[in-house]
Amino acid sequence: MSRRVLIDLLCLATFALLPLLASWLHEPFLVSLFTRLAIYGMAAASLDLLIGYGAMISFGHAAFFGLGGYVVGVIGFHTSQAMPLWGWEGSSSALIVWPLSLLVCALFALVVGYLSLRTSGVQFIMITLAFGQMLYFVLSSLSLYGGDDGILLNERNTLPGLDLENPVQFYYLCLGLLVAWLLFCRRLVNSRFGYVLRGLKQSERRSISLGLHPLRYRLSAFVIAGVGGGLAGILWANYAMFVSPDMGAWHKSGELMAMVILGGVGTLIGPVLGAAVYLGLEQVLSLWTEHWLLIFGPLLLVVVLFGKKGLYGLLLSPWPRWRKPPVPNAPPAIANSEVRS
Amino acid sequence: MLLLEQILNGLQYSALLFLLASGLTLIFGIMGVINLAHGAFYMVGAFCAAYTASLSGSFWLAGLAAVIGSALYGLLIETSIMRRLYARDHLDQVLATLAVVFFTNELITVLFGRSPPAMPTPEWYGTFVEVLPGLMYPVSRLLFIAAGALVAIAMWLLINHTRLGMLIRAGADDHEMVGALGVNIARLYTLVFVFGCVLCGLAGFMAAPLLSVEIGMGEKVLITTFVVIVVGGVGSVRGALAGALLIGMVDGLGRAYIPQLLDQLLPAEVSGTLSGGLISASAYIVMAVVLLVRPRGLLPARA
């Protein structure tokens, strides 16, 4: 069994056995914390699909997180207030609300992606940021839905066979969806589609001359990632029973990026670890001091400046870690220059 | 009258945006680094100004403190962190500078507290002058516009008519070649970065009495500043000026006319909520439109 599989299984086992541990330690709070980790992990992994495999550095990924949550929030609001939404009296069934929310996210991603992908590089970073902020301001201006304060939900959505109000059952739902999402993403990046995406990352020109249409692949990836972010937002709305425009604010996008980097770009599982470490550190440091960012900021800096492949890469790197690995089959320098000339 | 007053308000906002955007665009154009921490220097400037003014009571001393404070902090950050980032990819830069933002916000909170002292201003600062017959306008805002205009002229002179400006232009074109010709490129980078921070300090000083001095004030304006430089064309100071004027005007006029326009088009309860969001989002809408028509901005640095 390779180390990679071992690490993945270890992570899965930790997540799966956590409720037992929590009840054994009489710390029900742990289940709540790990639900958060799973939700953010899903959002970060979907962002990794863009950053790590498509070389699309989206600075507006939190927009999908916020939008997915808001659709749940708005439908919940109308349902509980008995206020028909365009003639529809609403529903609290997850089987109706969630696909609807995902559809909205997919459509939003389609529009934003189509427009943003006309640019690249720093302009792409900025235009995704701009679309994210646009959504943020629109959400904060919805005074019917609480404006800046957001919407408090009365109940979670219902799912046949599961009691989502039960924290442990809700946790297992989140975990199940996270694992399913990760498996789907892994299949995706190892499919032909994934290889095209990675080829585009390495050399766009070469891919085009092979007859590939970059926009089609990138846009599909953007929409898929948007749906992943939206699903995480849906789960968050149900977890916190509260949505606010802050879910889509730019610092949330920054946090998601930090999780991806912290865990390891282009590893899918890494960002989940990154989310766990990010939120765990936030939890621990903020218990310790109110000014936890004073420690967290430099810590993040060190990881960015000196950590090459993130946590996941560190776990996979050969022992002992402090020794530089030998460069495999480095060609002699002379041969290299001969090839160029 | 309303139109003229809104144009002046827009100009004042443009001046703030230009002070921040011109430094940021130079830093991006020459070092190729996306600096999310640029707003942090603006905040440092504003806090230094407010603190010095409340201690000494001197308005101009506060300005000096703001400029020196943000220049020194900029020097510290550049030599310790930024210069390691120039060769990295954008993702690393975004994250590292985000970390600097986190750190600076907390540092300022620890040093000055959450609410800084209100900035005392001299008497003339709060007075109004008659700009045109029937239009009274506050001196404070006129001063802001004048500062923006002066900096624009000074930068034009600096970049086009001095040796340093020549090096800056050359550095933006091909920094490796400039280094190969014997220019100390690391020092040029430091100089440009600190220069950007000085402009931030100036902006912070000008804004401290007018806008609220608070933690996170940098991020708020920084995002709009990024919009400005992307609209104008990344790396181009002329573009930054054009972008700042465009975004400032859209904001100033939008605030006055969007509510009126929507009131006529839509029922009252819808338009009231929508116009607030539309005003805030207007800069981003302009940016999206500009990028769709000209993906490299209005006045890109290199054709």
From TrEMBL, chain A:
Keyword list, A-Z: Cell membrane, Membrane, Transmembrane, Transmembrane helix
Membrane association type: Multi-pass membrane protein
Protein name in the entry: Amino acid/amide ABC transporter membrane protein 2, HAAT family
GO cellular component, one term: plasma membrane
Organism: Pseudomonas migulae
TM region(s), chain numbering: 38-56, 63-83, 95-117, 124-145, 170-189, 215-236, 256-281, 293-315
A Pfam family the protein falls into: BPD_transp_2
Annotated coiled-coil segments of the chain: none
Main localisation: membrane
GO molecular function: branched-chain amino acid transmembrane transporter activity
Location of this chain's protein in the cell: Cell inner membrane
Automatic annotation (TrEMBL), chain B:
Family per similarity comment: Belongs to the binding-protein-dependent transport system permease family. LivHM subfamily.
Keywords: Amino-acid transport, Cell membrane, Membrane, Transmembrane, Transmembrane helix, Transport
Keyword Cytoplasm: no
UniProt-recorded name of the protein: Amino acid/amide ABC transporter membrane protein 1, HAAT family
Transmembrane portions of the chain: 12-34, 40-73, 94-115, 135-159, 188-211, 223-249, 270-293
GO biological process terms on file: amino acid transport
GO cellular component: plasma membrane
Classification via Pfam families: BPD_transp_2 (PF02653)
Cellular compartments annotated: Cell inner membrane
Membrane topology: Multi-pass membrane protein
Gene Ontology molecular-function annotations: transmembrane transporter activity
